[in-house]
Amino acid sequence: MMKSRLACVVAFTSVLAVAFGAQSATGKNAGVDPRIAIEITAPQWQLPAGTAILGEREASLAAAEQPLAQQLRPLLQAEQYTEALALLTAQQSDEPSAALWLLRGQIEQQLKDNQAAAQSYRAALTLLPDFARAHRALALAAIADEQYREARTSLARAVSLGITDSTTYGYLGYINLKAGQSFAAAEAYQQALVLDPDNRDWQSGLLYALTQSGQYDSAEALLGDLINQRSDDAELWVQRAQVQLRQHHSDQALSSLEVAIRLGGVSSANRQAAAQLHMQAGNFPRALALLDKNLAAGDINMGYLSRLASWMMSEEQWRAAGQLLQSIDAHKSKLSSTDNARRLHLQARLAEHRGEQTNAMAAMQNAIELDPSFADAIVDLARLKTNAQAYAEAEMLYSRAAALPGYRQQALMGKAQALINQERYRESLTLLRDLYREQPSGEIQRNINTLERIVNQRGGRG
């Protein structure tokens, strides 16, 4: 009878250990984020506000407005826009021409009053609905005011009325990107580049639009042409890396990132992406060297670094994990209390692997003191206390962890294990039944069934 009971205890303990290990992997060792993020600079440029000039081919100033035009001309040439607007406001007639409304809007836009400029352009279009330049000017004011829907409508109308220069198509590409219409943006940028093939704004906009719309072959072809022209442009190599990564060509993406890094000016995020690719390829020394550069630059993302170190440990890369922790230790004075708690937790896990149980428990305790709600450290310290047969402390820690969001089942399973180790089977059974009522699962039910057999075999004792 005794032999049978012991067999049941061993089986149950094994089940709990498997359950605990699986939950720890979810909590701590989930690994590196599989989504490697390469940071690309979105196309940004200063959209011109237009030039305040006299005379338009589609509309002319009225004869009565010519004297005012002569007074405005020297002010506009001298870029004295405040004075010009004051003069125009004071002397314009009750019924200004469409051309004068356009001029007024251009002056207002030069003064960064985009809403007033838009009103003036609309007034011009009320008088002359097919005034193409007013449509494009209204689009520029709308872009500056982030009114992209109106801007797109106005630009499309300007194109239909015959304004088909590269700048107008470039604006259309920009607006479509802002609206999330990457396919339309790519088409507009392609038209802009046909008319102005050397314009870098349109090139970068087209690359961004092609990548966003998933047209990777076209993006890579364009990048090949541009890199042939500007092989020392690090941003082009970064963009190529992103396209290659989207195509699941990790080795090529890493090679492109390394070229960008050698050229200089690569962001910390992209060094981090390169480090992650190196780790996936098993090249830990280079990965750690790149992370060292980020740390030296003051970019200490402990959330990411702790996940990275945990992943290394789960992959049995203990030496690399230790080297990463040494690098982090050199900058620990710059860490917050929460981040230092993460660092200590990792140090504790490394010490545990080395068989240094006392050091591991001390580091875990220090981590909890720095961050009292650090559930992973609380659970791990409880497990270490259980292994050390310090059951009272272990139970208190498990109860503490069970009160934290997302850790109740893991903590109570750990506490049940501690009770089993003390042969307190009935208490463990009660605990698991309570847990089952809260979070029913087949795994918990199987454990309950095993414990019920043990209790019955003992005749109700324990």
Instruction: Specify the number of helices.
Output: 24
Overall mean pLDDT stands at 86
Order of helices and strands: HHHHHHHHHHHHHHHHHHHHHHHH
Strand-residue fraction?
under 5%
Low-confidence stretches: 1-34, 51-57
> Any idea what the radius of gyration is?
34 Å
Which shape, going by the Cα principal axes? elongated
Question: How many strands, which pairing sense, and closed or not: the largest β-sheet?
Answer: none
How many strands appear in the DSSP assignment?
0
Short structural summary:
The chain has helices at 2-27, 66-77, 81-91, 98-110, 114-127, 132-144, 148-160, 166-178, 182-195, 200-212, 216-229, 234-246, 250-263, 268-280, 284-296, 302-314, 318-329, 337-353, 357-370, 375-387, 391-402, 408-421, 425-438, 442-457. It has 462 residues and is mainly alpha-helical.
Write out key terms for the chains shown:
462 residues, mainly alpha, 24 helices, disordered N terminus, TPR-like_helical_dom_sf, Ycf3, TPR_rpt, TPR repeat
Protein model, in words:
By secondary structure, the chain is an all-alpha fold. Helix content is 72%, strand content 0%. It has helices spanning 2-27, 66-77, 81-91, 98-110, 114-127, 132-144, 148-160, 166-178, 182-195, 200-212, 216-229, 234-246, 250-263, 268-280, 284-296, 302-314, 318-329, 337-353, 357-370, 375-387, 391-402, 408-421, 425-438, 442-457. Helix 10 packs antiparallel against helix 11 and helix 13 packs antiparallel against helix 14. The longest helix is centred in the first third of the chain and has 26 residues, at 2-27. This is Tetratricopeptide repeat protein. Residues 1-19 form the signal peptide.
